[in-house]
Amino acid sequence: MIKANFFIKLACVLLLLALPSYALACRCPGQISPESAYQRADVVLCGKVLTVKGDIDKEGATARIRVLKVWKKRVQSEVDVFTSTTCAFVFRTGEEYLLYLYETPEGKYYSTKKCIGNLPISKAKKALNWLERNGVSTGIDE
Fold this sequence. Notes:
Layout: H1 2-18, H2 34-40, E1 43-55, E2 60-71, E3 75-76, E4 78-83, E5 96-103, E6 110-111, E7 119-120, H3 125-134, E8 137-138, E9 140-141
Parallel strand pairs: 3-9, 4-6
Antiparallel strand pairs: 1-2, 1-5, 2-4, 2-8, 5-6, 5-7
């Protein structure tokens, strides 16, 4: 009986160690307010995902986004957004999102991740209402 108990515990430990790394994915501490997400981001935009290249589980992924509306800073009509690590934001081609972006130090690209307020447009009504009332809408450069 003791031997069987030991092997069951050993099997459980080995199973946990064998789980893929995404099983240990990041956990968001809670819902972030639109105001807080806006204040932290360099750029806020609504956009449609045109393409996604790379693998978020390996080297990271870059999504090409067609910008539909933007706040805080003028951007090009299409921008590249990088995401990686266990807290990578999962982009789906053809989907529209409200995105809170950080500019890379060299200023060429933007990055984002989970837990900073990004939402599919279909779930962003509250945040979009806040942005329309309080955000500084800027233009899109062609």
